[in-house]
Amino acid sequence: MKMPESMEECFYFTNRTLEEGKGNVIAWVRRPKCSKCGKGIMGKPVDPKTGKVKKKADIYVCSECGYEVAVDELNPTLNVEIQYTCPFCGNSGETTTEYIRKKYKGVDAYVFTCQKCGEKIGITKKMKATKD
Ligand SMILES: [Zn+2]
Ligand SMILES: [Zn+2]
Questions:
Q1: S-S: 4 plus which of 9, 15, 98, 107, CB 3.0-4.6 Å?
Q2: What ligand is nearest to the CA atom of residue 40?
């Protein structure tokens, strides 16, 4: 598993200590290529007036051909790629999970399972000092 070279390649990137106070996780979601032209990269549309990305937009647009896909349609096809050290057993590994937040201890999180001990680990939304 290769880490992205910059945040620009990602819809999501986080590098943090887990809530359990030990163990850590680096996780990211790569921006996919356009399924139509195969050249452009999908991303949120840019406001032509301000030049800023419209983060709240509910579509992704191809950087080359302008093909549009609904966020709700594209996100479930993507994976969160994860490098982790398990807070429960100390195992270091790599895994993936769906790019869909689920409930983890009552909080929205990307949830994955330690491949060694089988414990569920949540990458929660609420942690401070992240770029969610
Ligand atoms: Zn395209
Ligand atoms: Zn474990």
A1: 9
A2: 1
Tell me the two tokens of residue 4. Answer: 């992205």
Q: Are 109 and 18 in contact (CB under 8 A)?
A: no
- DSSP at 8: G
Ligand nearest, relative to CA of residue 43: 1
Report CA(35)–ligand 1 centroid distance (Å): 7
Of the ligands numbered here, which is closest to the C-alpha atom of 117? 2
In this prediction the pTM is 0.86
| Total residue count of the chain as it appears in this document | 132
C-alpha of residue 132 to centroid of ligand 1, in Å: 26
Q: pLDDT per residue over 109-123, tens digit each?
A: 999 999 999 999 999
* Per-residue pLDDT tens over the stretch 32-91: 999 999 999 999 999 989 999 999 999 999 999 999 999 999 999 999 999 999 999 999
Give, in degrees to the nearest 5, the angle at Cα 22 between 19 and 28: 65
Ion ligand 2, residue ranges at CB < 5 A: 86, 88-89, 91, 114, 116-117
